[in-house]
Specification:
This protein has 205 residues and is α/β, with parallel strands linked by helices. 32% of the residues lie in helices and 32% in strands. It is globular, with a radius of gyration of 18 Å.
Length: 205
Amino acid sequence: MLHVIEHPLITHKLAIMRDKNTKTKDFRENLDEIAGLMAYEICRDLPTVDVKVETPITTCMTKKLAKDIVLVPILRAGLGLVNGISALIPSCKVGFIGMYRDEETLLPHEYFAKFPMMDEATVMVLDPMLATGGSAAAAITNIKKRGAKDIRLVCLVGAPEGVKAIQEAHPDVDIYLAALDDHLNEKGYIVPGLGDAGDRIFGTK
């Protein structure tokens, strides 16, 4: 259920994002572009339905998407993937989920949630970094409680530890990455990674 999307354009743009000297504007622009390229591959197997349309010449049978697409960014860094994907799928709907980690128990907790109907939709959960997988796993659990069944986790960079955590907690969820990195360091950062994605997207420290 793990899909690492290997494409020269994605690798090139990700190399720019990994560079510590890349500024916020270029970081955001490359993230938008990678998200759009990834969405093209993620949507490759979406179900379609036959429809009849009238062209300027005649009528014909063709196909349209059978299900709604719902994007659910995990706040705040997940917001960075929304523009690139919604540019490719302008009819998509967007929900939001915020998670924080309890400093004592280290367990993730939901602090904000707002969703469209997800029962019959294809839901893409968005988070640039899949490190330990704790927040993503908890977010997916909570999204399932709201009725979502067809869920895909979309991340820019992942660590093996995070992939394993999602596969164990949610074996029914496909994971899409632009790159699978080596490991997590003692602080829980992905190595080689690209630093804190949220800070680099929004220019915070």
